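DM from R.C. (forwarded with permission)

"hey, sorry to bug you on a friday — could you get me a structure for this? deadline for the figure draft is monday and I only need the backbone to look sensible"
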Amino acid sequence: MTTYEALNVMVIDNDDLQLELVSAQLENLGIVKIEMVDGGRQALAKFDTSQTKPDLLICDIQMPDIDGFEFMQAINERDFKGGLILMSGQGAHVLHTASLVAQLSRLNFLGTVAKPVTRVALEMAIGKMTVRND
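My reply, with the result:
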């Protein structure tokens, strides 16, 4: 398989179809530990109560309860050390703005991907992760 199979990934989006599509692309990369979460508020609740934190968060930028910007701030406050990929169907300007905000944070920002998310785009972003030895 791939070097990605050990990754623990949380995918956050308020759209069930997008969750399924991203999950399928991750499975195509050999990732088997995938948790799909409906929206930012639920993702933070799962993050806070989880014994094992995700290695990678893939988060939509535009969600009704907590948007991607608020989510980034919340996980930054929780001192999240894993990778972060932001995704959006809102166009290049939104992705660029989100990228700037993420880069200014202390997060391990791996990049942005446009919806519909492709396997190649995910693989490029995930490939920027450093191997964790903890």
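R.C.: lifesaver. The first strand starts at residue 8 and ends at 13.
me: no worries. The longest helix spans residues 16-28.
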